[in-house]
Amino acid sequence: MQTRSQGPFVGARKSPWQRVQGVDGVLEQWRGDRHVGSNLVLDEVLPSAEASFAPFPASLSPQVVTALRARGLSSLYTHQAEAYELSQAGRDVVVATPTASGKSLCYLLPVLNALALDREARALFLFPTKALSRDQEASLHTFLEQAGLEHGAVTFDGDTPADARRSARERSGVILTNPDMLHTGILPHHAAWARFFSGLRYVVVDELHAYRGVFGSHLANVLRRLERVARFHGSSPRFLCASATIGNPKEHASRMTGRAVQLVSESGAPRGERRVVVYNPPVVNAELGIRQSYIKTSARMTADLVKAGVPTLLFGQSRNGVEVMLKYLRDALMEARVDPDVVHAYRGGYLPHARRDIETRLRQGEVTCVVATSALELGIDVGSLDAVVCAGWPGSVAALWQRFGRAGRRRGTSLSLLVTSSAPVDQYVASTAKALLSAPAEQARIDPDNVEVLVQHLKCAAFELPFESDEDFREVPASQVREALGYLTEHRVVHEVTTPGGKATWHWSADAYPANDVSLRSIGWDNFVIIDRSTDTTMAEMDWRSAHTMLHEQAIYQHEGRQFQVEALDFENHKAFVRPVEPDYYTDAMTFTKVTVMSRAQETKAPTYELGTGDVSVVERVVGYKKIKFHTHENVGYGAVRLPEMQMHTTAVWLTVPELVVQSLNAPRPDVMDALRGLLSAMHTVAAVGLMVDPRDLGQCVGGREGDGRGSTLFDPTLYLYDSVPGGVGLASRLFDERESVLRRTRDLLDGCACDEGCPACVGPGAVDAEHCGRKTLALVVLSALGITSLN
Amino acid sequence: MDFKTKLGLLARPVGSTPIDSVNIGSPPVGSAPRREPPLSALIPPTPTAAGALHVVQTRSPSPEVPDASTLGVLGLDESLSSLDPSRVLFLDTETTGLSGGAGTLPFLVGLAFVEAGELVVEQLHLSGPGAERPVLARLSERVEAASALISFNGRSFDWPLLRTRFVMNRLTPPAPRPHLDLLHASRRVLRHWQRETRLATVEAAVLDVHRVGDLDGAQVPAAWFDFLRTGRVATLSRVLSHNLQDLRSTAALLRWLGASWSELVAVPPEVSLGLGEVAERARLPFKAERFFERATSSAVLDVQARALVALGRVQRRRGALDQAAAAWERAVPLCEDASMIHLALARLYEHRLRDAHAAERHALLARRVEAPMVHARRVARLSRKRQLVLAMR
Lengths: 792, 393
Prior knowledge:
By secondary structure, chain A is an alpha/beta fold. Chain A is built from 24 helices and 32 strands. In chain A, helix 15 (397-404) links the parallel strand 17 (387-391) and strand 18 (413-419). In chain A, helix 10 (213-232) packs parallel to helix 17 (451-464). By secondary structure, chain B is α/β, with parallel strands linked by helices. A seven-stranded mixed sheet of chain B has the order 1-2-5-4-3-6-7, sandwiched between helices. Chain B is elongated and about 100 Å long. The chains are: A alpha/beta, B alpha/beta.
């Protein structure tokens, strides 16, 4: 194995027999170390795959072929050729092949070919972030130049200077932008873009998997508007999508674009052998289920790899996590007398040239380790590395594979290592690690017909072009469009006019620019900022919903292992003022949640329980907080909180435990309720992992059958899991469809958890109270009484 | 839950501001739309090839339109200086909002042109959304016949909006005309006198026009929406007179700017400074010098200082070096920080007037605006030169 470390530290290599080298060497070392080896919960190998090539398609323009040859290519991978042929047949396409398999070429070929054939052809490229469009712009310029095309490619976003905007509209063949800019800056001004829209041939949606949940539901509506505007200007563009591996790329793309999209998923790109390892740090506090810091562990294991000369990529969960790991890692390298400058941080905020620089140095071996947030995940090229370390579960199987996909050479073994944290979801993953290799990637869910989202975009669409009486909105039938327009008419934002021909039309009629009132990313929209009064700096942001429970006055806010107390919460202006403190307690907000069923869409009755889904109203209010002592977890005090209640209408799935079953358990009713809460918490974990959603996007509440939450006199206790987005994005109906699997996997989770009476990984830490039957035991009794047994 | 029920549960949409501010009579009804909004009560329709057009013409004595070269200078735009000034078209629209974009509707297009010594204001009023064709057709005719457009903020607002309407109605916009935007022109001329350059402020200051009972521009969109929903035209008639007044003021402002430029009317020294700057940019140094000279009589110290600095600048450029030096010397005590002037004086004395003694005196006072090395070199060089001069004596 070659060594990559250079400079003054080379002298440290005097005794090579003491230093392990390469991925295999490090793995051997870990397996042999009894503190490490016993915590490797997964250590498996994925076999390699050969490349499969296809010749350049005959219909490909000679100019494009020239450009490909100039890039040193003499053939395509089979999936690239397949995507190209489908596009030539006039199909909409989604390419879902692994990271680094050459997906961009799949959409670049049809686009470049169209440009080569037609001077007036245009294409729109959508990327979820500004940085990505800037990156693609640079590579597109080279490509266009190599093909001798003079169409130009311009990134159009908030940073585009005013004088460049005009020429972008008039002359650029390719516009690269993000959904937000398309929504607020392009579509409402489409008349100024007439030439662009009338020539629009392709709409490229890259990183399609990033558009899920609310963001995805918004984008689907923005695309509905785009199609409508393009039709006005006489064009009907095709969609070319690229997605990371998700469970339902074809369905997701079809839902997003409203077309019967063709899937290309068989990658022709070669792949080397890959070793997949999951390390679950040992427990340090059994009672609370707290494990050794995954941050420290990840840094230490990465240091092992770097010391052994393995080019490694370390992913953190947040910017702060990255900073902390960077420090630990450099310290560890200094100690081992390895030059700490071989480690570099890589953040989303870096400018393109700074990123280029790191990419180059990585390739040249001057840098052997990069510590990054997920920025790297989104299609930026760092070349091939030998190892990827993920500090903490990235939220979904798909995201994990996307990060792991960053490592992998065509030959030789690469390492993919996940270090799990103490969080419930991480522990769930660790406990089911064996299933990780075969686990299907999660499905991306969107609901473009969410009324809340839909109406906002109908407003924007009415601003862009008047609606005609029999006009539909892609999948939204004309009758519903009419109803929504009626609603908007009542609220005086549109106005109905009858044409001389007797047809009704609806015109925008308000002194407002509706796109400015609609944010596509609900997060970042009404976030609270957290200001440290001791330094007078903004230290973090928090979403509106979490702010209620985490930032109420007197709350102890934890940040990077330090404690701060919230001194004041300016609710109006979304600011929380905190000051560092060293308390011997933390706070836990008490939220009163009430779920009321408004309509039942689907229900099934098992002999012992009922399961249903439908529309609910959720009212949440933080009423107070508990002070809980560190280590002993005694309750050392209470405080009241005055915050307005949060109300929303959304969709939920519920499990009703009939009163008869409750009584048959022969346990005190409060204990049963406690066990049910624990059970719900376990179901929540299972559901969040299974649905590829942020656990915060899924709310939970125990109530009564009617969901009217009549305090302690609950009748037929019912467990609710609801979509935290107003109107819902389809999580509930999906959960209902997967109900059997969710219940069974909940059972497996409880059965498989090694704790005594509950830990954060399963039903939550149980009350330390020997008098009664423990929380976990009782939860299992409930499951058995409901007839939910393990298949294992 | 069906779609309609879900709609009922939504919060009031953002942007649906009630328009009660202009409600006069009974509350508006969101009921059935009427087939023909009774705009005819306000402006009777005239049949045209493109449909019924609600147009009203108002004549008044015309203010003189400046000659083409003056228009070119005011707009700092060559293309204006060779056109026929008798065929200019004044333009001002009233719209449903200020944000622009495809959903903002100009519902009243006000035009004005000179005909037989009279200013003819022609206001084209929309009868309702979707009925723009007759308005756009007439607008197109007028623009085609015009030699240039003159507006107040029309370059970036009214005209792009009107172009959008042509596209939205699948019509070809008329060929572009040179455009003199008096917002920019008057900002250049008045910047040292009037901080604010809204039309209402400008007309009050320079034309001594004080509107009584004029509709606030912010109420214009509401007037249209109220008309749409209730058919009431009372407020619309106020919009008409507001627009009429705007057009007349634009024409009067142009006359005043032209007369000021041609030195036919007396203007405050602060305005002379602005005119001088325009002259300088138009490369008319003698005219600039005259304006700057007048501006030096300003009672405002800052204006006086700027005028003296500018005066010195044009004088130096034409070789009147002693005068230039004198103007700058006068400017020095008026400035809080005169370092830049000292530097200019140091250069003038050293390289042009060959007075090392004076140059050194000023150079020493320019330390703050020079890089330390450059400054040290200059001072050393001047000290050497001064001693050389002394020695030669």
